[in-house]
Design a protein that fits this description.
globular; two-stranded antiparallel sheet; 4-stranded mixed sheet; 6 strands; about 120 residues
């Protein structure tokens, strides 16, 4: 029987990072926009979108936070990039790439077309 007060040996502490705004002229939507929550969640998942929102909030308040678990997914999607103890996060979230939109179910593709008119 394990002692509830002692963490497993595989547990690692996540280091803290500082988030800064990555200024990019690419058009898009603010991170808290419904577009991001609806369509980017379909691409990268709800955990990654939640991490993106936490990074944006931290960048706005200049506070540190634990390194996001979904950082590799955010980086692959081009929404964040990390170097050492600093994570740069886009000020504006771009449109979902067309190749990813084509993978949406028909109803979501149609909603995306209406949202981006």
């Amino acid at each position: 029987m394990e002692d509830a007060g002692i963490p497993r040996p595989t547990v690692r502490r996540r280091r803290t990072v500082r988030a800064v705004v990555w200024d990019d002229p690419t058009p898009g939507f603010p991170a808290h926009d419904d577009y991001v929550r609806r369509f980017w969640t379909a691409v990268i998942g709800p955990g990654a979108v939640a991490d993106l929102l936490r990074l944006m909030a931290a960048a706005g308040t200049d506070r540190e936070l634990k390194r996001p678990v979904s950082l590799p997914e955010l980086a692959r999607a081009g929404l964040a990039r990390g170097s050492g103890d600093t994570i740069s996060v886009r000020a504006v979230v771009p449109l979902v790439p067309p190749d990813r939109v084509r993978q949406f179910p028909t109803s979501v593709r149609q909603a995306h077309a209406r949202a981006t008119r």
